[in-house]
Amino acid sequence: MVSNNLSMKKITLISLLLVGTIANTYAQDNTPKPQTSKPCAKFYLGPSIGLNNESGLFGLNFELPINQVSVGAGFGISTWGTKAFGEVKYFFKPCHTGWAVGLGLTHNTGLSQTQMSMETTNSTPGKETVTVDTKAQTNAFFAGYRFWNLGRSKHRVYLELGWSMPFSAPQYTITTGQTLVSTDDKTLKVLAPGGLIIGFGFSFGL
pTM here? Predict the structure, then answer.
């Protein structure tokens, strides 16, 4: 009888040890592993190009990341004078990559004493040289972005698609006194900022 009791105690003790070992092993396997990822960039800068691009036909952009938001600004050249912008973006993934959406304002300074060859209402057929002053213009815009990291670096390339809306209709003055025909009037206004945005850019992550 005593022998049977000792055997039962041994079996019970061994069973408890096995259960404890299995439970401990399971807990260790399910402990979250530390993440080893490269640090995010603290600042971005780089060139961009495009149609109605925030910083013009060609410009320089700056971007300061703050968690999954970033604050950006930049300047460049455009068909309506020098262009500058300010923008806030929201990124759907950490480290400012993947998809993002942005809202901002652009300001074009306009052009002064620019000579163009255009058709006027004068009796002389064909085009003639006119001198144009285009007025400053401010727009609001919204856009969607797709960013890709270049390999394991912090540098990125991106594509942008959006829409730009002027606060007022584009205005210009023909300082040489002629009046443009309606088709050339529309052509000149097409050069003003506003409408579809298509952009491409590169940013160095620092």
Answer: 0.77
Provide long-range contacts, Cβ within 8 A and 24+ apart, for 58-65.
59/83, 61/201, 61/203, 63/89, 63/96, 63/203, 65/40, 65/41, 65/96
Distance of alpha carbon 141 from alpha carbon 74, whole angstroms: 14
Class of residue 87 by CB neighbours under 10 A (exposed 0-12, middle 13-18, buried 19+):
buried
Q: How many CA atoms lie within 13 A of 105 on its CB side?
A: 4
CB neighbour burial string for 48-60, b if at least 16 within 10 angstroms, e if fewer? bbbebbbbbeebe
- Cα distance between residue 204 and residue 156, in whole Å: 7
Q: What is the CATH number of domain 44-205?
A: 2.40.160
Q: Is 96 left (phi over 0), alpha (psi -120 to 50) or beta?
A: left
**Domain edges within the chain:** 1-31, 44-205
How crowded is residue 23: how many other Cβ atoms within 10 Å of its Cβ?
10
94, 40 contact by CB (below 8 A): yes
CA dist., res. 129 & res. 136, Å (int): 22
Q: 141: which strand partners? A: 104, 164
* 174-206 pLDDT per residue, tens: 999 889 999 999 999 999 999 999 999 999 999
